[in-house]
Design brief:
By secondary structure, this protein is of the alpha+beta class. The chain folds into 2 domains: 36 residues, no CATH class; 134 residues, CBS-domain (Roll). The chain is built from 7 helices and 8 strands; from the N terminus they run H-E-E-H-H-E-H-E-E-H-E-H-E-E-H. It has a 4-stranded mixed sheet. Helix 4 links the parallel strand 3 and strand 4. The protein is elongated, with a radius of gyration of 24 Å. It starts with 5 loop residues before the first helix and ends with a helix.
C-alpha cells in the first residue's frame, strides 16, 4: 500500500518489535505489541470507563427543606453540593456550598428559607448519564466550572412544560475523577 519494498521496511519494523509496540509472528505477520505504551493503554481505559462504573451515591435534599437543614446535610455528608429533588423524586436543582454561603451571609432569616429559593434550577443544571464516559463527564465539569454532576436517567413521569424530567441515580465529583487518575498513575 505504501509502495515500499520489504527490505526498506524491515529495519523500521525490527525497531518497533524491539520496543514492544508490535509483535512479529512467523506465518502471521505483525500484530499490536504486548508491551503497548502505558499512556496509550491508560487513555484507552479512561475512554472506555463509564460514569456508572465510578459514580457515588447521590446526596439528596427535598426542595422544601430549609437552608439550615441543607447546611447540616452538607457538613454531615462531607460533600460540596446537594442534589435537590421535587416531591416525586425528580431532579429539581442543585445547591452548592457557595450558593449557601452567599445566601446565608448577613441574612438572619436564611436558615428557615426553603432551598428552592437558593438552588440552581433545572434545566440550568449540568448533569451526566450513567452510560457517558468519565472523559465526557470531566469535560462537562471543566467547561461549566462545577465540582460535581448529578448522574440522571430519564424519568418515567411526564415532562413539565416541555422540560424533560430526570431521576437521580448517582453523582460524580472532582474527588472521584482525581481517584481515577491516581489509580491509573499507580497502575491499579
Amino acid at each position: 500500500m505504501l509502495g515500499l519494498s520489504r527490505p526498506t521496511l524491515r529495519s523500521d519494523l525490527a525497531l518497533l518489535v524491539m520496543l514492544g509496540l508490535i509483535d512479529a509472528k512467523p506465518k502471521v505477520g505483525y500484530t499490536p505489541g504486548s508491551a503497548m505504551s502505558p499512556g496509550l493503554h491508560a487513555s484507552r481505559k479512561l475512554l472506555n470507563t463509564k460514569v456508572k462504573e465510578v459514580q457515588a451515591l447521590p446526596v439528596i435534599v427535598k426542595e422544601n427543606a430549609s437552608v439550615g437543614d441543607a447546611v447540616v446535610s452538607l457538613f454531615m455528608e462531607n460533600v460540596g453540593s446537594l442534589i435537590v429533588v421535587d416531591d416525586q423524586g425528580c431532579l429539581s436543582g442543585i445547591i452548592s456550598r457557595k450558593d449557601l454561603l452567599k445566601f446565608t451571609f448577613g441574612n438572619t432569616n436564611a436558615a428557615t428559607m426553603p432551598v428552592s429559593m437558593v438552588m440552581t434550577r433545572e434545566p440550568n443544571v449540568i448533569h451526566v448519564s450513567p452510560d457517558e464516559s468519565v472523559v465526557d463527564a470531566a469535560k462537562k465539569m471543566i467547561n461549566h466550572q462545577v465540582d460535581s454532576l448529578p448522574v440522571v436517567v430519564p424519568s418515567k413521569l411526564e415532562q413539565t412544560g416541555g422540560i424533560p424530567r430526570w431521576d437521580v441515580v448517582g453523582r460524580i465529583t472532582k474527588t472521584i475523577m482525581t481517584k481515577i487518575l491516581l489509580d491509573m498513575a499507580v497502575g491499579h
